[in-house]
């Protein structure tokens, strides 16, 4: 990507990406995404097999990297919050937070519960309909009754 130095209205300098190159990158990424969706729609079995092979390759060869990054993404914010930067105020020096800590916790907890309910509210009954836990025939009326 070509970077061009320019100056802003305050006399400072900044670096901007060349517009044509940025548009090419966006169209190129969108084209790959569209191609992948078309391939999955036209040949779901081969697309599923390719995606499964890619997933297994990544897990077998780079599973350690995934665990390393996920551990970092959990430990780094906790370390940041416990360091001197945890007291850093975002905003003017005289501003007061709009919500208390308990309110933030309640909002985040509610959002997490909402996501779980929306996702599992549909997924779990379908799972129990196709794999009944109480010995009913999968896909039967009894399985549907037990799943709901």
Structural notes for this entry:
There is one protein chain. The chain has 148 residues and is mainly alpha-helical. The chain has a domain at 91-148. The chain contains 4 helices and 2 strands. It has helices spanning 19-42, 44-82, 101-130, 141-147; strands at 3-7, 13-17. A hairpin with a 5-residue loop joins strand 1 (3-7) and strand 2 (13-17). Helix 1 packs across helix 2 and helix 3 (101-130) packs antiparallel against helix 4. The longest helix is centred in the middle third of the chain and has 39 residues, at 44-82. Mean pLDDT is 80; it is low at 1-8 and 11-16.
Shape descriptor: extended
Question: What is the structural class?
Answer: mainly alpha
* Gap from first CA to last CA: 54 Å
Q: What proportion of the residues is helical, as a percent range?
A: 55-70%
Strand order of the largest sheet: 1-2
Question: What is the helix/strand order?
Answer: EEHHHH
Number of strands: 2
Overall pLDDT confidence: 80
Strand content: 5-15%
Number of helices: 4
Assembly type: single chain
Please name the defining characteristics of this protein.
single chain; 148 residues; 4 helices; 68% helix; disordered N terminus
């Amino acid at each position: 990507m070509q970077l061009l130095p320019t100056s802003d209205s305050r006399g400072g300098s900044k670096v901007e990406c060349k517009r044509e190159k940025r548009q090419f990158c966006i169209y190129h990424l969108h084209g790959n995404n569209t191609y992948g969706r078309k391939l999955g729609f036209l040949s779901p079995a081969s697309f599923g097999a390719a995606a499964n092979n890619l997933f297994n390759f990544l897990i077998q060869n780079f599973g350690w990297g995934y665990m390393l990054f996920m551990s970092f993404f959990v430990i780094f914010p906790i370390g940041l919050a416990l360091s001197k930067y945890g007291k850093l105020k975002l905003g003017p020096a005289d501003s007061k937070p709009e919500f208390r800590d308990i309110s933030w916790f309640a909002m985040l907890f509610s959002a997490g519960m909402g996501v779980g309910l929306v996702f599992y509210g549909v997924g779990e009954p379908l799972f129990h309909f196709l794999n009944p836990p109480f010995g009913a025939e999968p896909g039967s009326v009894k399985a549907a009754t037990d799943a709901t």
